[in-house]
DNA sequence: GTCTATATTCGGATAGAC
DNA sequence: GTCTATCCGAATATAGAC
């Protein structure tokens, strides 16, 4: 593994753990195990390195959200719940969302654009899945996809905040359970006559218990 | 206004804007308009000043959440929605929640305890209001107050994250609208026979699930 | 390409005058 | 109580040797 990749990997970790402002070039070089000259040879400076590292992280997060549009994974509502239930290390926080609280990250146009793009991608996938769920009669027609997409995305992001505040994974899991329960109750309120015709099985087999 | 109060006010603002790690004693003194000697006379150092300032902020936030238990403000569900709809400056972020992303704040036992206490107070009020809503038949008996409290608290905290990510208030408002809509739909799904504890009818058919 | 040495500024705090 | 002067180390980067 070349020095360049070692540096971006180390920077990605440190951005996650400490954020941009609190990460010094020294820290990165030490963790990457390369000398100072290597870093300034491959990158113009801390900023340049952060842009490269955060871009890579943003890509992997976008991939994760593809569960929402994976038709193989079940009905739209099932995919929404599956995405909500993906394992998330609450006490470590979100690698992208964390940046929004870093004053320098928000100010920096390059970093801000990366964060904004990551959220735009995820929200777009949420909206598509929600609209599909409405079309399939899994959610009532009164649901506004753009609103609910932000609500559910906020539950995840807020779950990270709560988990970090308490230093415990439990609040994150509880927040997700509560959101799934709201979705189930909302789904149950759909007028049966509006349901999609190609999934005409009995209702009531969706009650999967989570402890 | 004495130097001490000027310092805590300035520190509170800077903690909000930049967090703990990114705020230097110099910044605080400059904004407060006092000399360096004054600061080290009234406080042992940056840490001591931050503890005093954050404690004050935590108190005002707890006061705000008292809407949830203000019986004058309406039914439990109405109070929940009223609290969700309180005006919140999304792009500025939450004064308490922001601390959870500051590496030094989470590490520091004193600061961490303040943040943890603020969330504990708020979550407790949420749980009480939700339990009251269930008791009043405004929400179904299947609702788990501890879970839903964290879900709704997460919507608010996540709303801040989304708003900051996009540099726009709109995502915060959308997230709140979506949450209120979910609550309304869930409320509508309550079995009418379980409503209004003043005129209690037979209960117990909630166990059969939502079919 | 990678290293060590060196500048420069800032963060955080102390000392002591007024 | 409040101020200015000053110290020490870290953050960020440049210079130039190997």
UniProtKB/TrEMBL annotation, chains A, B:
Biased composition (Basic and acidic residues): 193-211
Every HTH tetR-type domain range: 1-61
Pfam families: TetR_C_13, TetR_N
PROSITE patterns, sorted: HTH_TETR_2
Keywords: DNA-binding, Transcription, Transcription regulation
Residue span of region Disordered: 186-211
Binding region for DNA: 24-43
Entry protein name: TetR/AcrR family transcriptional regulator
Organism whose genome encodes this protein: Brachybacterium kimchii
